[in-house]
Structures are given as structure tokens and as C-alpha cells.
Amino acid sequence: MKGYRPKILCIAQQKGGVCKTTSVLSLSAAWALRGKKVLMLDTDPQANLTRNILDYETIEKDISLLYRGQESIDKLIRGTPYENLYIIPTRTALNRVENLERSLSTFTALKKNLPEVNETFPYIIIDTPPSLGLFTISALLAATHVLVPVQPTFFCQEGLGDLNETIKEARESNPGLKSVRYFITLYDKRTVISQDLSDTLRKQLGKMVFKTIVHRNIAVEESQYAQKTIFDYSPRSRGAADFKALAKEVEVWLENA
Ligand SMILES: Nc1ncnc2c1ncn2[C@@H]1O[C@H](COP(=O)(O)OP(=O)(O)OP(=O)(O)O)[C@@H](O)[C@H]1O
Ligand SMILES: [Mg+2]
């Protein structure tokens, strides 16, 4: 345990469709390619991350068992078609946990179990649903770092206040949550709105916004359809370059914050 510093990164944003799942997969894939063992957690009952990387029909054990305390964490970790890249998958039945089993132990299940595997997997990265409900709160209670994707649209930025409040509350119970950062995504350089809102965000949050911008790039969407990472599907695309740059910036932050 000497020198061990947990790195549990939660990607959160209650707005839907803003690139949470895409970032979890692309950042993890970038680090895995560079030899780092990464564990992804799918805590979204939509199971998009799981479907992006595994054959959904083959999943027998899912993250519900962890929330219910019915299986040990190491039995839930699955390999993926990519070296160094692992996942605890979910099935849509996870909805039942949220609807029926909201006890304290469900909220703290990740906090309790993740440190156990953080030495084997130096980076653990959690995908969350588009809500500030049980699964996002449970992830925030376990996280050491929070990364927020922001699409430069009016509604996405409007929602940031609620998210920041939730992060603040989680911090009161989770002193291990050290740092929060933002990045701009789905950026469309042809629109004035993208430019204006990105400038506003940088003015408001300053250095908390990463320099890298993830542009809207069709190869990213296509790669998901092909069930591949962007680096496998189209290594020379703008999307691959953006996520590679973001992965470097995030890594420096994780190692130093
Ligand atoms: N940089 C990008 N360029 C083009 N399309 C993208 C990009 N990033 C994400 N997408 C597409 O946008 C859609 C939403 O992305 P994603 O599923 O990652 O968002 P999300 O925040 O996880 O959504 P949800 O809140 O529903 O979980 C997907 O179809 C994805 O392929
Ligand atoms: Mg998602």
C-alpha cells in the first residue's frame, strides 16, 4: 500500500447526450493503449458503455450485484476486446436497484469496494446516468476526481449550478474527493454559439476548464456503431486526436491533484 494514491474518476453531468459515455470509453482506451490498466464502471441503466464494448447478451453478472452486496467486486470485472481495458458492465435491470433498493449501503457500495481494486487498476473511471440520482451520487461519494463534460449550449450550462451543488454536498461526506475539472465537448466550430458559450465558460471557471476541446466529429459516432474505440476505428480522425490530447491533460491532473 506504500505510496498508493487512489484515482477514481467520475464523469458526471445530468444533461443527457453530452459525451459522458464516449469520454469514459475514449479516455480509458487512450490510457490502455499506453499500457495503463484501466477499469471502467457502467452505472447507467441505459447500459450504453456496456453495449459499446461488449456483446450485451453475454452479460450474466452485472453491477447490480455490487450495489446489492451480493457479489465480490473481483468477480464482476470483465475483460474487453482491448488489452488493459476492463469493465464492470451493467444491464438495464439496474433500474430495479434505483427503484426498489435505495438504502445507505447502495449509496456507499462503490466507496466501500473500489479501493480494493485500485492497486490492480491504477485508473478507475465511472460512467454515470443523465441524472443526479442514486447512481451519480454513489459515484461522487466514491470518487477522488470529477470530470464534467460541457456542451456549449445554453441548457447544458444552465444545469451546471445543480451539478456543482451536488458535488459540494458529496464532498461533505467524501473528503477524498479532491478536485473537479470541466472540458468542452461536441464543439462545432461553424457556430457562433459554440464559440461564445465556450468563452463564457472559460471566463467563469478559468483554469478548471481543460485546454483541449473535443470537436464534433462523425468518426466518433461511427466508432460506437461499429462497437470499437475511436483509436481502433479511425486513429487518424479529429476525434482520436482530441481524445488523445484530453487523456494527456487528464492524466497530468490525476497524477498531481
Ligand atoms: N465528439 C463527438 N462527435 C460526434 N458525436 C459524438 C461525439 N461525442 C459523442 N457523440 C455522440 O453523441 C451521442 C451522445 O454521446 P454519449 O452517449 O457519449 O453521451 P452521454 O452523455 O453519455 O449520454 P447519456 O446522458 O444519454 O448517457 C452519441 O450518439 C455519441 O456517438
Ligand atoms: Mg451515457
> What is the CATH superfamily?
P-loop containing nucleotide triphosphate hydrolases
Strand content: 15-25%
Molecular shape: globular
The tally of strands reads: 8
- Which fold does the CATH topology refer to? Rossmann fold
Structural class, from secondary structure content?
alpha/beta
How many domain regions?
1
Low-confidence stretches: none
- Strand line-up across the major sheet: 3-4-2-5-1-6-7-8
Highlighted features:
257 residues; alpha/beta; Rossmann fold; 8-stranded mixed sheet; 45% helix; globular; binds adenosine-5'-triphosphate; binds magnesium ion
Write the layout of secondary structure elements.
Elements: E1 8-11, H1 20-33, E2 38-42, H2 48-53, H3 64-67, E3 78-79, E4 85-88, H4 95-100, H5 104-107, H6 109-117, E5 123-127, H7 134-142, E6 145-150, H8 154-158, H9 160-173, E7 179-187, H10 192-205, E8 209-215, H11 218-225, H12 230-233, H13 238-256
Parallel strand pairs: 1-5, 1-6, 2-4, 2-5, 6-7, 7-8
Antiparallel strand pairs: 3-4
Helix pairs in contact: 1-13, 6-7
The chain binds adenosine-5'-triphosphate and magnesium ion.
